[in-house]
Design a protein that fits this description.
- The protein has 397 residues and is α/β, with parallel strands linked by helices.
- The chain folds into two domains: 96 residues, no CATH class; 281 residues, Rossmann fold (3-Layer(aba) Sandwich), CATH 3.40.50.
- 38% of the residues lie in helices and 18% in strands.
- It has 16 helices and 14 strands.
- Helix 5 crosses helix 16 and helix 10 runs parallel beside helix 11.
- About 15% of the residues have low confidence.
- Adenosine-5'-triphosphate binds next to helix 5, strand 11 and helix 14.
Length: 397
């Protein structure tokens, strides 16, 4: 059973799949108690026990808004059916709650889908991935493109930068119950459409599938489920007609979520400050691209197309620009075999400032970040992201 307090659903697992067997609004639960009881009442279930033994109804009434049954929840203890028959194997919590059906690995269609998905990834931290994601999204949105951001980093910096973290403490956390982890965990439930939120960091609006710190602890559970790496790719197909561009933010690591991004995307941009540590990390990026390409073959997806290394946080010092920068760019191309994109994002105070904006509501300071294009449309930083958006669009369309 899933509920966010507004909606109440009972799902039934049969041998092959999970089916929705009952649904009503939270305020209608009382009126529907007889019907709910007929499905999940203890007496009724005991009476039915001689019936279909392969079917398990997953249910629980949750009175507090925002609670969700999740893999670590000991749901089996609360199931109204203790054991289905004496000889059957005990059903594990993982079997009940995690995706049960093998993925339908459909080949991609013949014609090119119009929606393009771009992963922004480097395993080196702090190089400007998140800054690139939100401001590139804003720049494309201002060009009239319908844009979706997917935050795959457990730090949730993009979720914050998009203005979705308005709450003060964890009791008010309204992201916990519906975020990218749910998209990645449940094959049949939590579509992108259902989880994506509209934001106010940019005009026109950009939708965001938010991340959550929970992503970190769940990685160990998801990793053994090999097919979990394909769920996002599968679900993106359902929104192909809703967006022109999807931009995925990634963690500064070589973990499962980074792999999922590289499997799900069509293109990759690698932001880098072009400094030695970031350069060394490029070999790891290359390795992960190779692994992702192997996985992509399984779902008939062509190899990931690298749009290039994007020079970010580059010093505006004129000597650096004319002398050091060209040498660093050359090194990336010669030594690491990656092209460097034509656009450059220089070190600009406005980029840090616009992500830290706040507003006062009822005497409380609330984060109110904006894209740099909304914060200072005439700034150099805004101009650089407009230029980047044009380069990206030209290369992906
Ligand atoms: N071009 C820039 N000029 C000035 N400051 C920048 C620039 N790009 C990013 N920053 C600042 O650098 C810090 C790191 O940037 P950002 O969060 O975008 O990096 P990241 O690669 O996403 O980091 P992580 O690997 O931790 O996810 C932030 O404080 C951000 O405001
Ligand atoms: Mg980041």
């Amino acid at each position: 059973m899933l509920t966010n307090g507004k909606d109440f659903r009972i799902l039934e697992r049969t041998a092959e799949e999970i089916e929705l067997v009952f649904q009503c609004r939270g305020i209608e639960i009382e009126a529907n108690l007889p019907e709910i009881k007929a499905i999940i009442g203890r007496e009724e279930i005991l009476q039915r026990r001689s019936g279909s033994l392969n079917s398990v109804i997953i249910s629980e009434i949750i009175s507090e808004p925002g609670l969700l049954v999740f893999p670590e929840t000991p749901a089996i203890d609360r199931l109204p059916i203790p054991s289905l028959d004496a000889t059957s194997e005990p059903i594990t919590n993982q079997q009940l709650i995690a995706p049960i059906v093998e993925p339908k690995l459909e080949p991609i269609s013949q014609g090119e889908p119009s929606m393009k998905t771009i992963a922004i990834y480097h395993n080196k931290g702090g190089v400007g991935k998140t800054t690139t994601v939100v401001n590139l999204a804003a720049a494309l949105s201002k060009q009239g493109k319908k844009v979706l951001i997917i935050d795959l980093d457990s730090q949730a910096n993009t979720t914050f930068a998009a203005g979705l973290v308005k709450f003060q403490d964890e009791d008010e956390d309204d992201i916990k119950d519906k975020n990218v982890l749910h998209v990645l965990t449940f094959e049949e439930l939590f579509s992108i459409k259902e989880v994506a939120r509209s934001t106010d960091f940019c005009d026109p609006v950009v939708n965001v599938v938010p991340s959550h710190i929970d992503l970190m602890s769940k990685e160990v559970e998801l990793t053994p489920l090999g097919y979990s790496q394909f769920i996002l790719n599968q679900k993106l197909k359902e929104v192909e007609t809703d967006y022109d561009v999807v931009i995925i933010d990634t963690p500064p690591s070589l973990n499962l979520y980074a792999s999922i991004a590289l499997i799900s995307a069509d293109y990759l941009i690698i932001p880098s400050d072009l400094k030695p540590f970031a350069n060394q990390g490029l070999n790891n990026v290359k390795g992960l691209i190779k692994k992702a390409n192997t996985s992509r073959k399984i779902v008939n997806k062509p190899p990931l197309e690298v749009l290039g290394v994007l020079a970010t946080k580059i010093s505006t010092n004129s000597k650096f620009r004319t002398s050091t920068l060209p040498r660093r760019v050359q090194l990336i191309e010669d030594k690491y075999g990656f092209e460097v994109m034509e656009s450059t994002i220089f070190e600009r105070e406005d980029l840090a400032k616009c992500a830290e904006l706040t507003e006062i509501i009822d005497d409380i300071e609330i984060p109110a970040p904006r894209s740099v294009l909304d914060f200072k449309p005439e700034s150099d930083a805004a101009q650089e992201f407009k230029t980047l958006a044009l380069e990206v669009w030209r290369k992906i369309k």
